[in-house]
Amino acid sequence: MKRKRELGGLREQSHSNGARNVAFPKEYIKRQKQPPRNATKKKRILITWATGTDRAKEAANSVVSEIFKKNSKGNIKIVDPTTHRIETSNIRYFAKGIDLDKVGLSVVNVEQIDDENQIPLVKLVESRVALKRYSDFLAKRKEMELMKLGVMNRSFRTLETDKKEDNLKQIKVSWQIESDDLRRQKAHEIVSLLKKGSKVTLYLDDKNNINSNNWLEGFEELDRVQEDGTNRLPKSVLQKRADVLETLKETVIEYANEPIIVGSIATKMIMKLTPKDVKPYDNDKRALKELRKKERQEKLQKRIEKKKLKDT
């Protein structure tokens, strides 16, 4: 008891003096927990913009944030405005000198390197276009927040559409692909993604180009400038490419809407696929209604026939 009273007095003395009493036993001192040595803090990447309105700067920073989410190092690919060639860069360097009063940033494509790494393809667009896309992004984010709070409900179709927009897949197809590989492995890869509800973009090109590091080069302007090189390729090569294209169409006809095809079999092509909106539950429900309606009609017809027999 005497020992406890002494310790109590030491506590009161320590609190009143506002300083640690050296005579206070160590086992009664509560030490603050220190963070582990290996703990690391995520640094927020900030880019200082010298031009543009506050709204334009917010829009640009939103794109920068999206880039770092897809690639932690900020590595990107850009379309050189002079040579129109796709080159590798980093958003930290690419952002220097951009006049946000005239242009803005936009991620137009994403290249999947492996399961963890992606490289966004970044393009400069008009300032009004960048601001419009940012406004749409904010509206969509606000809508999702209201949904989480239970203030707003959205239909199943709208949710599925959003899911598909965020789930874009790219598949490379060589013009020289073997027929068996195209009908089995490649077809399985494409159909599996469509069944999952993913939008799929097929890139068809010569195997030497499709396997290079800059394989996306040239596809960016494909919808604007289409080369005609049919006279430079043998008929057998053109027929082989036509067969590849036809096989792809046959493969996806059951699982995708009418494909959007851009380019030429003489050079390279893009085939954009959107999965069909199929709802088996709704189809089964409709079929069940039709069956019940038919049964009711048959019962009614039998009653009418019985009544006629009685009357006669």
UniProtKB/TrEMBL annotation:
Localisation per UniProt entry: Mitochondrion
Region (Disordered): 1-41, 289-312
Basic and acidic residues compositional bias, start-end: 1-14
Matching InterPro entries: AIM23
Biased composition (Basic residues): 31-41
Keyword line: Mitochondrion, Transit peptide
Keyword flag Aminoacyl-tRNA synthetase: no
Family: Belongs to the AIM23 family.
Protein name as it appears in the record: Altered inheritance of mitochondria protein 23, mitochondrial
Organism expressing this protein natively: Saccharomyces pastorianus (Lager yeast)
Gene for this chain: AIM23_2
